[in-house]
Design a protein that fits this description.
The structure is a single chain. This protein is of the alpha+beta class. The chain has one domain: 2-Layer Sandwich (Alpha-Beta Plaits), CATH 3.30.70. It has 2 helices and 4 strands. The protein has a 4-stranded antiparallel β-sheet. The longest helix is centred in the last third of the chain and has 10 residues.
Length: about 90
Amino acid sequence: MGEVAVKYKIMCDPDIEDASADDIANAMDSMESEVGVVQMVETKPLAFGLKFVEAHCVIQEGDGTVDAFEDAIREIVGVGEVEVLEIGRL
């Protein structure tokens, strides 16, 4: 099987008062998953002082692997919306 490169936009959960893009980025750096790895993480400005996390990940190709990786991202405290910005095969 091959690998898939995915770029994610990860937003903070607006319902969690202490949710921080920097905390999410730190958690993404140390995230371990059986189906993929995080290559690079950045916090970027959105608007009005809000930030989002952009993560570049490499995920094993296969049935449900991308979904399993996204579920692992959603388990991080403070994560709201997870959006795929780009995806492609390596």
